[in-house]
Amino acid sequence: MRQNNMYIFIINPVAGSGKGSKVWELIKADLETENVYYRSFFTKHAGHAEDIALQIAELHGERLEAIIVVGGDGTMHEVINGLRSYPQIPVGYIPGGSGNDFARGFMVPRSVKKAWKRIYERKNKSARTFDLGRFRFSERKKAERFFINGLGIGFDGEVAKETNQSSYKKFLNKLRCGSLAYAISVIRLLFSYQPCDIHVEIDGNAHTFQKAWLVAISNIPYYGGGMKISPNARPDDGKLSLCVVHQLNKWKLLAVFITVFMGQHQRFKEVTLLEGKSLTISSERPLLVHADGEIIGKTPITINTDMRTQIII
Ligand SMILES: Nc1ncnc2c1ncn2[C@@H]1O[C@H](COP(=O)(O)OP(=O)(O)OP(=O)(O)O)[C@@H](O)[C@H]1O
Q1: d(CA 95, CA 111)
Q2: pTM across the whole model
Q3: Is 70:94 a contact under the CB 8 Å cutoff?
Q4: ipTM over 0.95
Q5: Which of 8, 35, 71, 101 has a 20 to 30 A CA-CA distance from 197?
Q6: Which pLDDT band, with edges at 50, 70 and 90, does 124 fall under?
């Protein structure tokens, strides 16, 4: 049993275009009232959450009650990577981002106070174990990294890049509809993106998809701010779900896109769903890859799911 241990909060103040800071103010008030033993750290730049998580883990290790992320999917991604040598440290999440797919996939309450209450009420109880996706690019054999929600290749990578750089994401966040930013990027890129052949090897079986738009590899059903891309994905089944969209014109892609929010895109013959534990993906030309919405490199890439982590949900 873990007793009297410290909570560490890692807060991304710019997540959700400032929502991270506001969410923190709400939680802080509760922490003071409840006399919670905690320390808080604000991220100062991209990648900082990963450094903080690693330093804290090295310093306090098992003595931590939990590390709690206040931010969006990108901040969660960084913390998970910072803790890759410390998978026994429990991680909690309070939504403060734009897309918040992690919150959807792990059924974290949208209400800040409820999300914190659920974490705090689990004190001294063990967190649950979940799968992580482990990936590496072939030209950087040793540099392994992890994702918790999903990884996207091709059109998907371009959409993530466009969204992260856009001014409309900030604007929509202010209107509290940050999830719409991904949808706008899809429409913007639809007419300029050129599909290409993608080769997927999954658990030893090779597939070639001609004129493929994207490959989405999921640990949870959701990505891109609520699109139900892999309706059957479960983060605790030891497998990854794949969705490949191939050989269709731009108008039909638009139809697929409209149905993906309900998970109905699987009815289209141009949508192939697969699942497995070990994957290698290469393509006719190098394609942009995102992990948990953060741009991480270009194909070819190797992915598997043999690593687990502790999440408080
Ligand atoms: N102080 C900072 N200044 C600028 N960028 C930061 C800072 N701290 C963290 N970041 C970066 O902010 C980016 C966005 O964070 P995050 O993904 O958590 O929020 P979001 O994009 O609003 O939400 P979501 O990913 O759920 O859509 C991340 O790439 C992170 O590295």
Answers
A1: 8
A2: 0.93
A3: yes
A4: yes
A5: 101
A6: low
Residue 93's Cβ-side half-sphere holds a number of Cα atoms within 13 Å equal to 28
75 CB near ligand 1 (under 6 Å): yes
CB atoms within 10 A of CB 293: 30
Does 167 score more than 80 pLDDT? Answer: yes
Residue of 50, 78, 162, 294 marked catalytic: 294
User: How far apart are alpha carbons 260 and 62 in whole angstroms?
Assistant: 41
d(CA 255, ligand 1 centre) in Å: 30
**Mode of pairing for the β-strands spanning 64-71 and 240-246:** unpaired
Domain range list for the chain: 6-126, 132-306
CATH number of 6-126: 3.40.50.10330
pLDDT (average), residues 244-272: 93
7 DSSP β-pair partners: 38, 66
Residue 74's contacts (CB-CB under 8 Å, 6 or more residues apart) are 12, 15, 97, 292, 293, 294
Distances (CA, A) of 245 to 135, 180, 269: 21, 21, 9
How far is it, in rounded angstroms, from Cα 196 to Cα 43? Answer: 38
Question: Does the fold of domain 132-306 match that of domain 6-126?
Answer: no
Cα distances from 303 to residues 145, 158, 163, 199, 280, in angstroms, run 10, 20, 24, 14, 6
From the list 156, 174, 159, 127, the residue with the least C-alpha distance to 309 is 127
Residue 82 beta carbon below 6 angstroms from any ligand 1 atom: no
* 154 token code pair: 């091709």
CA pair distance 66, 83, nearest whole angstrom? 12
